[in-house]
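Write out the 3D structure for:
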Amino acid sequence: GGQSLIGLPAGHLIAGYNKIITTGYAALRKQAQDWIDEHKFRAMGEDMDKYIFYKAAVITCDGAMTLVRRYGEKCLEKAAEAKDEKRKAELEKMAEALLWLSENPARNFREAVQGIMMYQVMIQIYDRTPSPSIGRFDQYVWPFLKKDLEEGTITMDEAQEIVDAFFLKANCFYQGGKGRLATTTGIGNTYQHTTLGGVDPETGEDATNPVTYMVLETVGRLKLHDPTISLRFNKNSPDKLWDCA
């Protein structure tokens, strides 16, 4: 298609999804702004490069907070227009979560999944290169689901529906290929590669969790070929993971 392969996102870089849902944009912005304030009028040498980086981080966080907040405000607008009470309540719940996530870390499983998707939306808007790979989705969100299940605020069926919705939404970033580009890369490959299973980096123990199975069930039942999936096995991987795969 006349486009160099080096210009395509290749799935080799994973952005800090986990940090977004555990730290939040406002705290990240504060970290950057605190460094700037601390070095005001005395940034020299290598500190100038750091200043440019932290200033960019502040601007990016401001943009991200604005984007997520606007989605929340749009949900409120839709809720005000909704005739069906069930849909109205759903939109209000979405709005409340988004307005919270515009500055803060996720409080529950639904917000964790929503926070990752909103970050993905921002990455797609900004620049898909070098990569929008999602990475270890099951590891990011499982602590939130575990807490919700222990508190009785969600069921496994509800959680499965959220995972289904996440991966269906990830399929909205398609762009039509043209000419030889389409035959080289295929139609509908968004490079949002997702890795499941594996081991805990701190303990070395098997990291398979319920979300690992839920994602496999999602892509199998919904016949999704994208995002692409890698499943990591180790000597302690449970037999039922092989069966599910």
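The two ends are 35 Å apart (CA to CA).
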